[in-house]
Structures are given as structure tokens and as C-alpha cells.
């Protein structure tokens, strides 16, 4: 099992969309059992979810793709800036990018998510931002990953929290 990281480019939109579906429907309750194309349509029907990937790669977007030894994508994490008028779920301010992350199911639990997260945190700091936010469901075990990498809960909603890391 070996993997490496590379920057995400415009050609990665389909893979990132698949990872967004994994992140948004991590329990499979919205779209589990459907063919992937139908999963996408179902999950992206929520404009607030689609907002994480619409028009990728636009100004302010940045991301990293994990690939296996044959260069096949197996995970991705990316950030995007949002506005007060069109916020995503973990919106803090127009100057604070928000992170999304997903790993292909068969590759989870092998340290790829933590590597991607650290890489995106580093990239975001190098790009000059001083904070990075995200939204995670309260019962998603990913919350532990974020907490262990220095993200703190700054807002609690009925089913999700917003977490923020100072860079
Ligand atoms: C969450 C996710 C990105 C983590 O990536 P990963 O490669 O599986 O995680 P790693 O192997 O790097 O593990 C890092 C930590 O994640 C946490 N974690 C993530 N998923 C977990 C699970 N299902 N059960 C237990 N711990 C989990 C653990 O704290 C783990 O820490 P450890 O290494 O000390 O055990 C990945 O599991 C995933 O894509 N999940 C579905 C999509 C999703 O939920 N995205 C996040 C939405 S906010």
C-alpha cells in the first residue's frame, strides 16, 4: 500500500465531486445503494453542498489529490472561499477558506486523510491565510481527526459543528 500526493487541477473535478458525495453522505443515508451518477445528482441537489465544487477550479480554490502507485486518485482534500451571501456549512468569514475531504472507501483508515489534511493546512498557511474552517456532523468520527490536528469547535448546530484551526 503506497500513495503519494499531488496538487488538484481542473481535471480533477469529477473525482472531487465523488469525494464530496462521500463527505456529504458519509453514512449513505441520502444516497446509499444508488449508482454513483444518481448518488451525485441526489447529493448535489442541495445547492449548499454543490457549492463546495461548482465551477472548480475558481479563484481562491486549492486542493490536493492522493494517488495510488498507479496514479489512480484515492482521496482528496480542498479548500474554497465563500461569501456571507452564499455560505457553505462551515462558513466563518470571506477571508477564511473552508475545507472538504474524502477518501475512497477501500483506502480509509490508512493514514491518507491525516496526510491530506496536514498538506492542505500547510498549503493554506503558505497562501497567506491565518485560519481554516470546516463543518462536520457531530457523530462523524472524522471529528476526532480534526480535533487531533488542532481544529476547535466554534459553533454547534443541531447535527453538525463548525471547527476552526488557527494557522
Ligand atoms: C474522514 C476521512 C477523510 C479520514 O480519512 P482516513 O484516511 O480514513 O483517516 P486516517 O487513516 O488518516 O485516520 C485519521 C483519524 O481519523 C479518525 N477516523 C476517521 N474515520 C474513522 C472511523 N470510521 N472510525 C474511527 N476513527 C476514524 C481517527 O481519529 C483516526 O485517527 P487514528 O489514526 O489515531 O486512529 C475518511 O475516513 C473519509 O473519507 N470518510 C468519509 C467521508 C467523510 O466523512 N469526510 C469528512 C466529512 S466532514
TrEMBL record:
PROSITE patterns: GNAT. One of its GO terms (molecular function) is acyltransferase activity, transferring groups other than amino-acyl groups. Keywords: Transferase. InterPro entries: Acyl_CoA_acyltransferase, GNAT_dom, MshD_Acetyltransferase. Residues 3-167 form the N-acetyltransferase domain. Coiled coil: none annotated. It holds the Pfam family Acetyltransf_7. Signal peptide: none annotated. It comes from the Bacteria. SUPFAM superfamilies: Acyl-CoA N-acyltransferases (Nat) (SSF55729). This is GCN5-related N-acetyltransferase. It comes from Stackebrandtia nassauensis (strain DSM 44728 / CIP 108903 / NRRL B-16338 / NBRC 102104 / LLR-40K-21).
Amino acid at each position: 500500500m503506497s500513495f503519494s500526493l499531488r496538487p488538484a487541477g481542473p481535471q480533477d473535478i469529477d473525482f472531487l465531486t465523488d469525494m464530496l458525495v462521500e463527505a456529504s453522505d458519509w453514512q449513505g443515508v441520502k444516497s446509499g445503494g444508488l449508482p454513483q451518477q444518481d448518488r451525485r445528482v441526489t447529493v448535489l441537489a442541495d445547492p449548499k453542498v454543490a457549492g463546495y465544487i461548482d465551477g472548480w477550479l475558481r479563484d481562491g480554490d486549492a486542493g490536493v489529490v492522493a494517488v495510488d502507485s498507479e496514479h489512480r486518485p484515492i482521496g482528496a482534500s480542498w479548500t474554497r472561499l465563500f461569501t456571507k451571501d452564499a455560505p457553505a456549512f462551515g462558513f466563518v468569514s470571506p477571508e477564511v477558506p473552508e475545507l472538504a475531504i474524502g477518501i475512497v472507501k477501500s483506502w480509509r483508515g490508512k493514514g491518507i486523510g491525516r496526510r491530506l489534511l496536514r498538506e492542505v493546512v500547510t498549503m493554506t498557511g503558505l497562501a497567506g491565510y491565518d485560519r481554516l474552517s470546516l463543518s462536520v456532523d457531530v457523530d462523524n468520527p472524522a471529528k476526532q481527526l480534526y480535533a487531533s490536528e488542532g481544529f476547535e469547535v466554534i459553533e454547534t448546530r443541531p447535527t453538525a459543528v463548525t471547527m476552526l484551526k488557527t494557522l
